Amino acid sequence: MSGTALAAEIVEAQAATRLVSPGFERWAEQAASCGHCANPIRLRGSATTLDRATGEVLSSYDSGTEPDGVLYVRCGNRRASVCPSCSHEYKGDMWHLLAAGAAGGMKGVPSSVASHPLVFATLTAPSFGPVHTIRRAGRCRPRSRKVLCEHGRPVGCEAVHDDGDDRLGQPICPECYDYTGHVVWQWWAPELWRRFTITLRRLLAASLGVTQAQARDLVRVSFAKVAEFQRRGVIHFHALIRLDGPPADDGFPAPLADVPTVQLAALVRTAAAAVWFDAPPTTTGDTVRRLRFGVQVDARVVSTTAERELGRADEGGLHPETVAAYIAKYATKACEDFGLPPRLRAPEAARAMGIAEHVCRLLEEVHRIAAAGSDVYLPLVKWVPMLGFRGHFATKSRRYSTTLGKLRTARKRWSLHRLRDPLGQDGGTEPDVLNEQVDDSTLVVGSWSLDGFGWLTAGDAALAATAAAQARKWTDDRARQRRASHDQR
Ligand SMILES: [Zn+2]
Ligand SMILES: [Zn+2]
Ligand SMILES: [Zn+2]
């Protein structure tokens, strides 16, 4: 028998043992409570919930009563290659967060935000040299075959690439491609974004004919953005940009100045085209590079509820939930698109794994610039697997909507409540056993120690993974149905 077959048989035997064990049903509940996480944290301990005023014991929990004597808690990893369940959950959270800020009416964001001007913008990188691409018209880069670059390669490409073509995003001529410019742009992209937000606020004030200080008393700009890698290995930003009023008690006041959404979209385009940043040279012999966003800036109007109800929605106007779902799709992608493992650093290792030559060259360039001697670029070494992108993949301004932390606390409370009260008898008000304090009226006194990470056997892990895949499909189907019925309304 081969080693693989033997291992498979052991896993099967372990799973079978679990299935017939007396505590299986409770174990299955625990596995479901931590979302069938691929690598759960195992905790031992107990917690008691007390009424703060009277000291009365409201509930208590002890992991010693569980089949394995442990409490299983999600790993919380965002990367699908590490934990499909937790990354899926994060994506769901991102959707809620973005949708709440776009459409309101959920997660503590009032439905009135849907009447605020909202724009969906895409800010791309400029070109660093021609790459293979899909064109609606057909051929990749139709040019005369006789035209060659200085490296003797044809400057055109007559192929019609399909979606699975490995050449997509790869340079037509790697020697012509500006790898240094690419990595330098990627490194400073967060700075370009920062300047974009400042410029947008300045342009908005100018369009209202007031100073920036005066404008802040009328309108505030809130945004949520996601960074996505294009096939050529450079990020671009998708952003939801919304206008609110100055801070008030209810948190999401309407703007006090009338700025039509189409005007906001125009201001976004102008701001994106205007911003620049002079990147310092990478070495003593190098030049300053003036960095800008690419010319393909897109700023589309997201139709407000009021506009849709009046039948005045912009022709090309997008539905808020559609945009939120589109953005959230990218929230977990990170560098996995290139097949880069989280800790991959060496270009030689990437080549040995069969990773695209263009990505290997980018890795080399990141290393080269980091080692070139300029202090400014030394920190690049920390961002090698991200191809030099140091920003966050998903960010939002404070007031855009609720926070991921709030969503997680709410869900953790709910799932831990379910864990101890599977029949749902007490109305779901029990506090989180892992938090010291959840609200003012109760106090949780607990003591926990780490037992370890992961499922106890490979058989348990296989059972959890199978259940997780089914659970994800089920929740996805449900969410799709919900969104479809929402769209019909
Ligand atoms: Zn996990
Ligand atoms: Zn091509
Ligand atoms: Zn060339």
Write the layout of secondary structure elements.
Layout: H1 3-20, H2 24-33, E1 41-51, E2 57-62, E3 71-73, H3 84-103, E4 118-123, H4 179-208, H5 212-215, E5 220-229, E6 235-244, H6 261-274, E7 277-279, E8 289-291, E9 298-301, H7 305-309, H8 320-329, H9 347-352, H10 357-371, E10 394-396, H11 404-420, E11 442-453, H12 458-488
Antiparallel strand pairs: 1-2, 1-3, 1-11, 4-6, 4-9, 5-6, 5-10, 7-8
Helix pairs in contact: 1-12, 3-8, 4-6, 4-10
How would you sum up this structure, described in words?
The chain has 489 residues and is of the alpha+beta class. It has 2 domains: 3-75 and 404-488, no CATH class; 110-128 and 178-396, no CATH class. Helix content is 37%, strand content 15%. It is built from 12 helices and 11 strands. It has helices at 3-20, 24-33, 84-103, 179-208, 212-215, 261-274, 305-309, 320-329, 347-352, 357-371, 404-420, 458-488; strands at residues 41-51, 57-62, 71-73, 118-123, 220-229, 235-244, 277-279, 289-291, 298-301, 394-396, 442-453. α1 packs across α12 (458-488). The termini are far apart. The structure holds zinc ion (ZN) (3 copies). One zinc ion binds at residues 132, 140, 157, 159, 161, 167. This is Replication initiation protein. Pfam families: RepSA. It comes from Kineococcus xinjiangensis.
